[in-house]
Design goal:
With 463 residues, the chain is an alpha+beta fold. It contains 13 helices and 15 strands. A hairpin with a 4-residue loop joins strand 1 and strand 2. The longest helix is centred in the first third of the chain and has 23 residues. Bound molecules: 4-amino-1,4-dioxobutan-2-aminium adenosine-5'-monophosphate and magnesium ion.
């Protein structure tokens, strides 16, 4: 006895003659002269199960009147080999119950809707074929993440969501406070008196679990986090969300090269996992969203990524003969047009850019011997740009203190982070994969709002 009758398990493991009950939502229905049909969908697969309704069904007239697109149906019947092309089975109904009828203004009708429109009905879009596929792949991808790290012996750690430290030092944090905005307690110098606040200090939503991850890496060697992160970046792009999920492995006794090796092995694993588990959904994306997606994903699994130093990347950009809108100069950050040129035209595959200038990266990155660059790596992929940011961490206390001073950060705020360098500190490294960026890459979806169930972006937090 199967635990559940989902359309997926029925189509994969059913046998002609099986008596069964299915529950789901009507994707389309058709009334014919002699028989009627319902295409039933239940979220388990991109495929639908066709329910055949014969007029001898007790409540036939009632069912065909109410089994409209969007209504919920419970159907019991016999599975038979389907004479129709493109499907193995159909269900000849013995009983059909309309479990939830649908009002006539149901917005999802048979036609194709734009992703922009579907964002306005975030409560209904999971029932569409595209979003069904997106969220099934999202599920598979997060299983892949856990399976990979578990099989590699990593310990998962839940780092805090509310924090007192700004990991990226970019000042893009959402404040967490219970102070009355109409009546903020002030110090004598007019600054906010956070000692009256809930945590008796300033607190915010985390931008990254890395710093706490380092604590655990220096006890468990190999750890990872996978949690929500928050950035108050006012970036109105298709790749930035204010709330997104990040996977951050951290490894002790590890340098930048080993960090990149792990990142490459990890990306290949999760892509292969999705290809294996979500084959029908990937075919759907290949046909409807990004032509050639399957080939692209297969080549990720089968070929190695490229590595380029930041300095070589800048030289290549300067010699490209391209007319970029943003300047290319050693010391400036790479803009998305530059990243796109590198991955889409120059290298044409995932590329690690390493050894960035110290001043455009975070304080915790390890200074290289040239004293101008840090042991950083970003993984860029075609069409999405940066999906991973990582580095070897500065494990030398004097160098770390230099960095804190260089970035005008207060040493005392980082007391425990500094302690880790004094008490059995070792070279260690890690990286962060933006989960939604990875999902965009494996599905071909072009807007981050369309790969997260409920997007939070500048100016928008609906549902
Ligand atoms: O490059 P980032 O800022 O690196 C860190 O946060 C490090 N603490 C990671 C580490 O070394 N443990 O962010 C990592 C990744 C980016 O490469 C990108 O994929 C994603 O997080 N990301 C975002 N995704 C969606 N919306 C945003 N606003 C994002 N900002 C970063
Ligand atoms: Mg980054």
């Amino acid at each position: 006895m199967r635990f559940m009758n989902t359309i997926k398990t029925i189509l994969e493991n059913g046998n002609s003659g099986d008596n069964l009950t299915v529950k789901g939502w009507v994707q389309t229905s058709r009334t014919g002269k002699s028989v009627s049909f319902i295409e039933l969908s239940d979220g388990s697969t991109i495929k639908t199960l066709q329910i055949v309704l014969n007029p001898d069904l007790e409540n036939y007239d009632d069912v065909i009147r109410h089994a409209l697109t969007g209504s919920a149906v419970i159907a019991t019947g016999v599975l038979i080999d389907s004479p129709a092309a493109g499907q193995q089975f159909e269900l000849t109904a013995k009983s059909v119950v309309i479990a939830g009828s649908v009002d006539p203004d149901y917005p999802l009708q048979k036609k194709r809707h734009s992703f922009e429109f579907l964002r306005t009905i975030g409560h209904l879009r999971p029932r569409t074929r595209t979003f069904g596929a997106v969220f099934r792949v999202r599920h598979a991808l997060q299983m892949a993440v856990h399976n990979f790290f578990d099989s590699e012996g990593f310990i998962m750690v839940h780092t805090p969501i509310i924090t007192g430290s700004d990991c990226e030092g970019a000042g893009q944090m959402f404040r967490v406070s219970t102070l009355d905005p109409a009546n903020i307690p002030l110090n004598a110098d007019k600054s906010v008196d956070y000692s009256k606040d809930f945590f008796e200090k300033e607190a915010a939503l985390t931008v990254s679990g890395q710093l706490e991850g380092e604590i655990f890496a220096l006890a468990f060697k190999n750890i990872y986090t996978f949690g929500p992160t928050f950035r108050a970046e006012n970036s109105h792009t298709a790749r930035h969300a204010a709330e997104f999920w990040m996977i951050e492995p951290e490894m002790a006794f590890c340098d930048l090269q080993k960090d990149m090796n792990t990142a490459q092995k990890f990306i290949k694993y999760i892509v292969k996992y999705v290809l294996d588990r979500c084959s029908d959904d990937i075919d759907f994306f290949d046909q409807r969203v990004e032509k050639g997606l399957r080939n692209k994903l297969e080549s990720i699994v089968n070929s190695d990524f490229e590595t380029l130093t930041y300095t070589d990347a800048v030289n290549a950009l300067q010699n490209s003969g391209k007319n970029f809108s943003y300047p290319v100069k050693w010391g400036l950050d790479l803009q998305s047009e530059h990243e796109r040129y590198i991955t889409e035209e120059l290298v044409k595959k995932p590329t690690f850019i390493i050894d960035y200038p110290r001043d455009i990266k975070a304080f915790y990155m390890r200074l290289n011997s040239d004293e101008k660059t840090v042991a950083a790596m970003d993984l860029l992929v075609p069409f999405v740009g940066e999906i991973i940011g990582g580095s070897q961490r500065e494990e030398r206390i004097e160098m770390l203190d230099n960095q804190l001073a260089h970035f005008s950060l207060n040493k005392d705020d980082y007391w425990w982070y500094r302690d880790l360098r004094r008490f059995g500190g070792v070279p260690h490294a890690g990286f962060g994969l933006g989960f939604e960026r990875a999902l965009m890459y494996v599905t071909g979806m072009q807007n981050i709002r369309d790969v997260i169930p409920f997007a939070r972006t500048a100016g928008s937090a609906d549902f």
